[in-house]
Amino acid sequence: MIQGGAAPAYANSDIDGVWKISKATGVLAVIDGPIPFTDAGRKLYEAHKGARARGVYDFDLTQSRCASPGPVRLMLSPDRLRIWTRPDTVTIQFEWNRLLRLIDMTGKEHKPALVATAMGSSSGVLEKGTLVVKTNNVSEQTLLDDVLPHSEDIQITEQIRLKDPKTLEDRITINDPANYTRPWDAVVTYARGADTAFAEDVCLDRLSAGQPPLPR
Question: Whole-prediction pTM value?
């Protein structure tokens, strides 16, 4: 509970709490037809699929080096995530590798990043009960899912809202003209879970134990 004056509308939001993806998947699926690849995007996609089928993961730094999966792929994790809102920031904590995603809610204009990062830069605003998040400056060394590529010019828009008290929806819009001929949407849903402590799920420990780096 925020003390000292009126709290912003998004503070203490109903999206706060622990969530788990409704259906574990390594695929970010378009909701209205096939993926609208450019020629360059399809070439990368096919190369990634072929390498993965051969058990070669040089293209996937998460599988090969335990690097951060990036903001979209992280939202597909079958491990839990915890959301909490504060006046200036929405924080998403992930059970896998204890990663954090920070969404700036101040409305301040940000200077373009000198170097793109795995998580990029995210800013958000509350619109009629929906948390709208815009993310850019995401390193092209990350992926959208297990194989889908993107460029560093990608613009990601998410609309995160409650469908009902126990169901969270994240509608993700991908806009990346280098790899896709038009913006396209995917929807991921989550079920509310008990607010219990997160267990350790460390990628390097998984590798040492001969397990897949990412949970499935």
Answer: 0.91
